Each structure stands twice: as structure tokens, then as C-alpha cells.
Input
Amino acid sequence: MADTTTPDIIYTKVDEAPELASASFLPIIQKFAKAAGVSVGTRDISLAGRIIATFPEVLTEDQRQSDDLAALGELVKKPEANVIKLPNISASVPQLVAAIKELQGQGYALPDYPEAPETDADKAIRAKYDTIKGSAVNPVLREGNSDRRAAKAVKAYAQNNPHRMGDWSADSKTRVSSMSGGDFRSNEKSKTLADEATAKIVLIGEDGSETVLKDGLSYPAGTVVDATFMSAKALDAFLTDEIAKTKEEGTLFSLHLKATMMKVSDPIIFGHAVKAFLKPVFDKHGEQLKAAGVNPNSGLGDLMARVEDMPEVKADIEKVIADRAPLYMVDSDKGLTNLHVPSDVIIDASMPALIRAGGKGWGPDGKEHDANCVIPDNSYAPVYDETIKYFKETGKLDPATAGTVQNIGLMAQKAEEYGSHPTTFEIPHNGTVRMVLSDGTVLHEHSVEAGDIWRSASTRKAPIQDWVQLAIDRQKAEGCEAIFWLDETRAHDAELIKYVKPILDTKGVADKFKIMAPREATRASFETIRDGKTSIAVTGNVLRDYLTDLFPILELATSAKMLSIVKLMNGGGLFETGAGGSAPKHVQQLMEQNHLRWDSLGEFCALGESLQFLADARGNEKARVLGKAVDTATQGILDNNRSPSRKVGEPDNRDSHYWFARYWAEALAAQSEDCDLAAHFAPIAQELADKEEAILSELVEAQGKSVDLGGYYHTDPKKTATVMRPSATLNAIIG
Ligand code: NAP
Ligand code: MG
Output
């Protein structure tokens, strides 16, 4: 059970690699913070924790857990909020099902996930599970806009220690393919509401019947409301065409979506790709597959499991896959393809990795090949298309000399597409979708066909204004180029521009900003950083996500080291640790070799910001001293190359925590602003230094053997602590 009083700083309990890292790092934070009278508590937003909190009625008293996500959702609306948010799993259906199974195995009497709910009871269970699915955490916590950039020390380190980049050649066959029409981009309509309004979404059938898809929507005055759809027919035609072209071109077929965050639309698009790729199989065995409960949206992995005892179907699948262009692989050793699980290839991480590698992806033969990067919708695909074209023309980026692209992202209150899941529908039959206001005005209307994916997204006025102001402040602080990545020919962006321009004019800063469509902004930004300069990308919510992986992965090798601050609109602070995810591959390595290659630099950066924010918000000068010393310690980690190695037997995440604690204690002992803190930390620093050899040998000796964490999604805290804190000497100092 979480404590009931709110700690000064909340450190979220999450999943996978960052949660393992916390088992080692959090005790150090708590020990140091206590000396300054700062309490650091946890709140559980892990996938398993959220499942448990959702079904108290079927669990025993001991098993029950408070709904920490809901509590945090309230906290972030208050000025005292100070939350360090680590990356958590955005669960796809296969992950959700696996987590439920694991919990059931641990004695939690949870209901199964109803794949095809028929009864009302099953439908109710499914609705509950659906609130946990996909990106269910970040939209609740992000009550503010986002400021992401590489801290100066991190950028300087990357320039002095440039990572390897794959070469780009002009004749690379790698390219991005997108639909030529019928996609979300081309069907988009957008309007700004003059007054507050309530609305419903209805589907009028060809026979005049009316189905209410959603009722009771309400928007404050000034909200930008969009509606659009992707045509299923156009999508299928596009996919069929690209599957054939990929084969002709001799490249890998790769599909890049965001099935985690876009949890309703993108698994459907993914399912279309699975069906298109295996079309001969679905044509021939459609009935049998249906009877086996196959849902293409869950991927080839789920499909294969369901046809396990159907040799004829299996043989046909293998034959089709052998006939087609080779698939881009998630893990070629294990035969895991791009189409196995909808959440294995996530566009914001996958495209930059492919670009960093010189336009190469892994094929089924375990070798690198050029790829056709299929990104069906055109809204943001031009960013990757232009990046690839630019590198083909100019060659790879040089991280030793490249400047940096910072980001100010519009994110608050579920802005834009990332808040559109409750208003996204797979259309059941032909007709017209109308968005109707309570006074009868038809705000938007589209004529649609069965299978089309229709959605509405909205963006509120206060977040837009806050975002523009944040951009103005950041540009002033940096004094560099700043670009609003907005496309005046796109319906939604045109509405945003109507907000942006007058604010810039009123503040007298219009000359400091450019407004450019994503494709042009991409090229302009690469040209700027190639000259070693800085550019601020002021973007909407999706590009906030994409660009804060793309540029850091090219500039710094990873997005995990980003400073990622959310200035909450009601005054609090949310400090995200980097811009990356929960690195599932790292967990596998830990389990097999007891080596954790997770880099906690994102946590270090966030901790420093959080402490300094606490100092500002509460006038706690001890917290300021502690925070400044964190920055010194982070610098120490970089200067002395104390970040984790990728290889077993070499220093890992736990070693970096030892070094961080030591540098932190040394910085506190050396500072002269607070004598009490200096006196408190001097002996700790001394002991950490004196016992270096013992600690490091205890840490390295632990490596090399497989370990048991008592679970994957719901690990045993005692077992995890034993694995993650193997140095008795260090533990004695930390307590
Ligand atoms: P990812 O977790 O960022 O992993 C991609 C790769 O990035 C990793 O395999 C690893 O590369 C590298 N990486 C990321 N963080 C690292 C760190 N701290 N230290 C060292 N290397 C790091 O992205 P993903 O595979 O797309 O997503 C995995 C899960 O994270 C999904 O469930 C997704 O929903 C979730 N996610 C959450 C957030 C969030 O909560 N803010 C954001 C993004 C994704 P190597 O394997 O080469 O070491
Ligand atoms: Mg991202």
C-alpha cells in the first residue's frame, strides 16, 4: 500500500528495465534526500499495478492495491506536484494478456481478457481492461506542455565521444512509402469552437438508421476540434501495392506505427497489414482462422499460436512468407518479424534506429538490408521521408560537430491525436459520420464505408496559449532559430496557426520564429545542426514524441539521456526521465546474464531538476544544494565514463549508481553553501571512496548467472532487491 501523505517528491514505480534500475537507485536517492529533510515516496503506475488496482472486487484484502494513477492524475493538477516519471509499458493486447496470466499464476483471481466479449458481464470486463491498454498513463499525467532538450553536459559528452553512425549512400534503396490519398492527413477537417459546446458523434446508415457512436462530449470555448478518417479500401490497395513493390525492389518490408499510444487506430492498421501480407492464407483458410479466434490486429505471433495444430495452414503461411519480400525483423535469431506483435516496432524508436544505421534494417537472414519503410498516413511520414532524402544527398550526420534540436511540445490535456482514442471508431457499415453540436449544428461530416477508421481529436485553447508562451520563453533563453512545425495546408495546423501568429505579434517576437510544414522544417533543422547550431522545434503532440527520439538518437545515440520537463499548467512539475521507453531487451539480458545495460542518466537529469524545482517551489535551500550536487555528479558520470557497458562482466547500471552516489556525496561534502550537509556527507563520501574496490568486486562477481525476479510484469520486490543490490558493502553504507 502506498503511504497516504504525499511525499515531497514522487518517484513512480514502473515496469521492465527502469523499474529494475530503481531497485538499486531509489534507496540511494532516499538516503541522500532524507539528509535534507526531503521525502521521496513511490506511486505504482506499472502495468501489473494498474491491473490489480482495477479489480479490487475479485482480490483478497492483501492483494488489493490503491489506484495510484488516479491519485497522481489529481496531484498533477495541484501546484505542489513534484513527480519523477519513469517510462512505463504501454501495453498491447498480447502484453496485457501475458500480464494477466502472470498475475493469475501468482494467485490473483483476475478475469481473463475477453477477446470477443458477447455477454454484458464480459463486455464490462473488457471495458475495464481497455482503460489499462495502450498509453493509459502519460495522457493522465501530462497536465502541461513539454520542454525536452539535451543538457549541456550530455551534448558536450556526445560531441567529444561521438557514437558510430551507419554510412548513407546516394544509391540506398531505403525509402518511406505513404498513401497517396484516403488517409488521415487528406481527409482532415478542423474547426475552432467560438463557444463552449457539447457534441455527439453519430453514424447515419444508408438506410437512414442512426447509431450514436459517442455522446456527451464537451469542449470549452476556443477548442480546436478535428475529424478525419482513413479509408480501409485505400489502405488495403496501398498495402497490396507496396508489398509487391518491395519484392521488386529487393528490400525489406517494414511497417512503422505507434500501436501503443494510438491504441485504437494503429492496431487496426497493423491488422490490415497482417491480412494484406498473408492474403492468400486468409483467402483460402478464412473460415478456419476465424473459428480459431484469429484477430489479425494481434499479429502473426498470436496467429501462429492459434494454428499450432493446423499443419496445412502453417505450411501455407510459411509458403506465402517465403514468396513475399523478406520481412524486417525484430529478432532474426528467434524468427520474430515486424508483423509478430503490434507493439514490437514503434515508429518513434524504430525509424531513428534504422536511419542511424544508414538506412538499414535486420532481415530474416540476420543481415542488414535496405528497407521499404511503410508509414501509411501522411501526417508525419514526410519527416522521415525528408530525413532519408537529406542523408542520401549529404551523407550521415557527424555527432562530433552536429548542433542540437530542442523541442517545445504541445501536449497538455490530451492534445491532438494522442487524446483521440475515446473518439476513434472502426466504422461498422457504410454511411455518414456526423459530429453534431447540441444546438444541432453539424460540425464535421464524412461519408464513410465499412471498415474505415474514423476519429476526432481536440486541442484546448489554454494549452495552446501556454505552449506558445513556453516557446517564446525558450527561444529567449536560447537566442537561436525557432520553428513552429505547422503545415498551413493541413486543416488542423491552419487552425493552430490562427492562434500562434497573433500571440507572436502581440508579444513582439514574430521575427524570432518561422512557421514551416514538417517536411521543410526537417530539412531546415538538419541544415542548422549540420552547422553546429541549435534549433528549437515547436511542435504538436505527435512530433513532440517523434522528434525527441529522432534528433537525440542521431545526435547522442539515444533518447534516454534527454532532459524532459513538463511544466504543469497549475504550477507543479513533472520530470520525465529521458524520452525513451522501458527497454524490454535489457530485461532479457539481466535475466540471462545478470547484467543490466540500462543507463540511468535520464533519471539523474530528472532528479536534479526535481530537487531544484522543490527548492524554488518551497524555498527549501537544502534541496537546492542537493540538486546542484546532482548536476555535478551527473557531470562526473559523463567525464569519467561511468555509464553502463552493454557487455556482461563489464560495469553495468548498478556500478553507475555506486559512482553516482560517490560523486554526489563528494560534491555535497565539498560545497560551502550548507555546512551541515557538507559535514553529513563528508564521511559518507570517504567511506564510498575507501571501499571502492570491495564494492566494485562484489558488483562484478554477481554478474554472469541467470537470475529469477519472481515474475516479469509483477516481480517479487525482495528477489528484485537481492538481484539489484548485490554489494553488501554498498548496502551497509546506503542502509
Ligand atoms: P525503448 O524502450 O526506448 O527501447 C529502444 C531501445 O532504446 C532499447 O532497446 C535500448 O537500446 C535503447 N534504450 C532506451 N532507453 C535506454 C536506456 N535508459 N539506457 C540504454 N538504452 C536505452 O523503446 P520501445 O522498444 O519502442 O518501447 C518499449 C516500451 O516502452 C513499450 O512498452 C513502450 O510503450 C514503452 N514506452 C514508454 C514511454 C514512456 O512511458 N514515456 C516512452 C516510450 C516507450 P539497446 O537495446 O540497443 O540497448
Ligand atoms: Mg517517443
Summary: The two ends are 22 Å apart (CA to CA).
